Every structure is written in structure tokens, then in C-alpha cells.
Amino acid sequence: MILLDGLDKHSDPQPPKLVAESSVPVARAHTPTPSLPDYEASQAQLKPTTLSYPQIKEKRTRRRRWRKCALYSLVVYFFLTIAIGVPLIVVKLKRKAYTKANPYDAWSGNPPIPPKSITLGDAPLRLSSAKSCNAWNVEDQPDGPLLRSELQYNVPVNGSIFLNTNITYSGNGTYLSHFSGQLLVGVSDDPTADEAAVHVTMHHTTSALRNATNVCLMQTGQGGGVYLFSDSLSFNITLLLPQNHTSTRHVPQLMCHLPNFKQTYQQIDPYVTFGSVVLGGAMSEVSIKSIQASTAVVKASLAEIEGRFAVDSSLSLETVSAPINADIHLYNYGTSDSPTYLHLTTGNSVLNANVTMYVPPGIDPDFGPHFLGHAETFNAPLTLALMHDEASVPATLRLRALNNLGNTRVSVDSRYEGTFDVATMFAQADVVTQHGTESQDYHSNGGNDDGSDEYGSGADAASDMMNFDDDDDDDVVDYGSDDYVTRGKVRMYLPSVLSTGGTSTYSAATTSASSEGNASGSTNRCLEYDLISSSEIRGWVGTPPRPSPTSGVAEWEQYDSMGHIDIVSSLSGAQLVLLT
Questions:
Q1: What is the pTM of this model?
Q2: SS3 label, residue 461
Q3: CA nearest 357: which of 399, 322, 407?
């Protein structure tokens, strides 16, 4: 074997390096590549999957199938809503619009509710503005354990007459216990008197206390009167008004604001009438035998209000924790477009009122409501009786009676026409038709076991209400059929009572609300029920045809001027009595 010199058999031969012949760089083709995924996506792609390709395909198919089912369900729901839901909504809206009672607020619209504030003229007055003070004609005369002082002022009657004091209610009433008195208002027997006489008797313990008290005759721009500047005394005040022996004397205004007084007003009407009357005071009992005014306001907290009132503009009687017992005569002579207002409110005590309404003949019955009334109490019964004067034409009345925790009962005579809504929250609503001592009672609940006439709701209630026995006809008519109960309405002609030999026989005729032909030809007063539910009864009473807002201009005017009665009670019963 021949070995070449200089070569190691253990060394590796080194290949020659390639040298580029040119320094020009080689241009490489650029290929578009997608953007790289983020870290979470790349990690997810690297995770191994155990699903095979058929399984992945089946999973995708299942997802598509659920999407299609959801889409089909939405389409079916949409068509069902259009086919079923829309007709139901339309029917309900039509029924609601058809059966709804008068869609107005009893105190809304034109004219508005009368203001509740009391204006006492220029009071409080200053001692420096007094015309005369402490003109005692009797001073410090012994009267038992006290001393008595007396004086008398004469007040013109061509303006406002007021009796007032600087004593106010201090919040807890203890301050008034040191100030008290009695007021008597009547008509003078002196035929020559042309001014009002105010006689004041003051009882005091010492002469120093009398000197610290000022009984002043005040003269203001509106009129004159007596003002008491005192802290703790007892007074007896007598106001005698002059009278005209040939005619009634008219006094523009009478204001008596005396807290903790017992105010007694004798029979002033018809000798003297007033333009406006403001009476009362904190803890002042007001008793009126008879008074007539255009506007009368009586406010007496924690004290009773009773008496006979005759007004032709507005009457407001307000107290709390004390009863109201009033005999009220309301007049509306139609000299203006405004109604006559009635506002009665108390709380935690009874409210009893007999209201007689008078509207003279010749007044347009469609000019609007003649009388607007509001009566409210709580935790005590509320009883209202509304009647027409014998010489009055039928009046349009809108009344709202509210109560909580006390029974509410409203009676109207046979000349009332309009809608009614008797509603309770957790008690029973009743509509009663009564002639004399005999009555038919239609309740919102089911019948009782005591034999009284109580009826349920729906068609069965309608059938029960309209099945009266007629002595002249032995046939029994099924008034509960579809011919007589339509669109949720029930029309029943009120029974007339024929007295023969001391006995009363009821006769009644009934028809459905849709029988307009018979209704339009009938002159009998009828009762039509729009709603009979567990705690509410709505309807209309009057002589058909019933006014409708869609019949024409004349019918719309009758509908807009129609009467309405709202009776609302929360936790006690509510009754509407319709006298026949």
C-alpha cells in the first residue's frame, strides 16, 4: 500500500468553499401568508382531539338542526300572535270602551274645583288700627268667683262683618285651654235697628287682667267688626243682625273665626241672607239652625258641625275627629255656566247629610253638570241622601263619596239619571232599588242563606236579577238567555209598586242592552249594568235610550252633561240606593 506524504489517514478532507461570482443579491419570490393566530388560539389548535371526522360532522349537523327549529318556532309564534293575540286585544279594547262608565274625573274639566283656602279679610289686624277699644259700660262687677265686664259696639251691615281674635292654634292645643267662650248670632227684634249690635261679656279674675285685654272695634276697607286682643280669658259674645220687615236684608259677608268657642247660629234665614260666610276655628263647635248664603265655608277641627245650609254657589264643611250632620239645600239658577259645589270632609267620625237640589224650569239641561259634590271620611260611616225639590226639574249631579274602614251609603231619588260606579277593595259593593220600605238588593257576591235577594256575577247573576214573577202572567220567561244578556250588559226596567188594599205588587219588564227598538220606545226608567264583579258594580240608570258619544252632536252633548256617582270604600261595604 502506497501512502502519500503529507496526508493523514485520520484527517477528514475539507471541501473547497464556494464563492459567489457576483455580489448582486438573489431576489426571492414573496408568497402571501395569513396573519398568525394569537396565543390562546394556537394553544387550542395544538390540543389533540378525540373526535373523529364523522363525529365532528354529526355535531355540526345537530347545531344546524337546532338553529332551524328555533327559527321555525319564532315564525310559528309570530303567526299565532297575529292570528290569535291581535283579535283578542281588539275585542278586549272594544269591550272596555263599550262597558266603561263615564270617562271623566268628577272634579276635572271646566269649571275646576273651588278653592279651599279661607280668606279672613284684612286679618290679622293691629291694635294701632282700632277705631275704638275697651269702651266698657260695666266694669269689674262680681259674678261668682270671677269679675264681669261688658261693652257693646254697633257695626254697619253694608260691608263685611267679622269677629276675630289674635289667638291661634299652637299645635298641641294646650294654649287654647286658657281662651274660650260662646258666640250667639241671631236676628234683632228691634224694628228701628239698621246696624248690627255686638255685645261682649268678659269674665276675668282681676282688674289688671282686664286692663291687659283689648276688645276693639275695627274698621277696614271691606267692613267692620270686633277684634279680641287677649291671652287667657272667657268671653260671651252676642251678634244681633238687623232685619227688614218688608223684605230680606242682604249682608255681603260674615266672618267669625274664634278658636275654642261654641258657636251657635239661630234661624237667620229668611230674615237675613249673606253673600259669603266663613265660620269656625280650631276646636270650635259650630251649630246652625238655618243660614242662607251664596258661598259658605265652615272649618272646625276636633269639633262637630251641624245645621241647615242653603247655598247657590258653593258649600264647604270641614272638620276632623268630629261628626258632620247637615241638612243642605243646593240651588242652581243657571245664571252662569258654573255648577254649585259641595265639599264635605271629616275623619274618624260619622258624616251624615241630606241634600236637596233645586234647578228652576227653563234651564238648558245640556249646559253641563248642575251640582258637583265630594264627601269623604275614614274609620266611620258615611251616609248621603240626595233628593230633588218638588218644584225642581231633573238636575245633573256628579258626586264622589270616599271612605276607609267605614260603610258608605248613598241614596238618590227617582229623578236622578246618569252612570254610577260602586267599588270596594276588600268588601262588598251593592246596588239597591227601593220603594218606600220595600227594596231589591243586587250584590256583587253570591247569595246568602238568610233569604235575602243577593246575586252573583255573569249570566247567572243576570238571570237571577231579571226573573221577577208577574201576577198577570203565569208564564216564566227565561231572561238569562242570550237574547237578554249581550256584550256583558244587563238592562232591567225598575219595578213599579202598585198599592192595592195595603199590599204592594211588583211588576217588571226586562230587555237586553241591544234591544234598542224596545228601549227607544219605552218611557220607563231602567237600570243597566255594565259590570258586575266581586267588588265593583258599574252601570247606568235613567230613561232610555242611553246617551252615547257616537250617536251624533245632540247625543254627545247629552252624554257629556250626564250625571255620574262614584262610591269608593276600601275595607267596608259600599251601597248605592236607587229610589223608585
A1: 0.70
A2: helix
A3: 399
